[in-house]
Amino acid sequence: MADKDASHAAADAGGVVGPDVVAACALNALPGIGISALHAIATSFKSLREAWEAGPKEILARADDLELRPAAREYLARMPDLHELGLWAVAAAKDAGARVVLLNDGWYPAKLKAIKNPPPLLYVRGHLAPEARRVAIVGARNSDEQGLEIARSFGDGLARAGVQIISGGARGVDSAAHDGAFWGEGQSVAVLGCGIDLVYPPENRDLFDRMAKGAGAVVSEFAPGTQPSQKNFPRRNRTISGLSDAVVVVRAAMRSGALITADHAAQQGRPIFAVPGDLGNPIASGPNQLLRLEVAKPVLSPRDVLELLGWPVPEALRTEPPAPVQDDPGFPMRTDPTPKQSKVPTAETVMDELSLKLWRLLDERTPAHVDDLALRAEMTASQALRKLAELEQKGMCLQRPGKYFLRR
Questions:
Q1: Is residue 335 part of a domain?
Q2: pTM of this prediction?
């Protein structure tokens, strides 16, 4: 009777779903429960559904064998209603426009299913095809302008070849890669480090909506309501590489999420490519290190990636002019005949101290987000945005997608 009641309530809340979905959503929403714990529970009870039916008392009785974390034990000790918890998660997913895909569903991506301990369930907005050619493009949130251009061009070119772009939906390289896929009239998949019902970063709402409405998918393995947290991102990065046929690292510092993604890719047997960068650029140190250690192969264009993977190269990419050769290992830079000089603020162009303070915080190579600039300038984000708009009108800064700004 409990299964029938749960299925009926879940159908009312989140579409036609069965008790297996409600059970998976409930256990996935338990505090302190990760992928390994979910697999251990499924093994111990024969399935997540049987554990859910057994209830919190029985799960808690096996806590030592399951190696449950203190947070999970404390929560289970309160004897929560797992049926209600599962129904809440299903309803929250529906409210966000998402559906639940279980590990044994036909819609679960085959490549991700093949990794060790794959996520037992995915919350999906949009269409996540079970079989597709996918390449992850990852890199720094605080990428320089050239890194953003590279990410866009790779997203664009690979999309034109029918390849889906996978990334984390974050600021910087991730967003640029997703944008590039749209330029190439292709599809993109953002894997979130938070619940499917949250938008992070908030300025990417339109980007995620576009994916969900036909240009790909937005995916999360975390329960609805899960806040973006540093501890979530390695798990998210593992899913990014697991969904992909290969990983391209564009820009990354030595300690970065992009290198964590590359590490997961290596463990999963995925090819890793890296865009070499200027030796003096700190956020090129990650890709350069991957190349130096021969963990990754160098790529300078989408065509390089396609050829190294043995995939067809569209005629449009074959006829692109070759990039100019440089002595340095960096990605080819623009070849302006004379370098542009920075515009120096004067009393005529900068009318107040706040504008001057913001201008001095800007950099010519690395875009800065308005929130970071506001914090460093000790003003509100709305004040900073207004002053930056004035500077942009005066030709003293450039705005990039996502409210990033460069000195001009």
A1: no
A2: 0.78
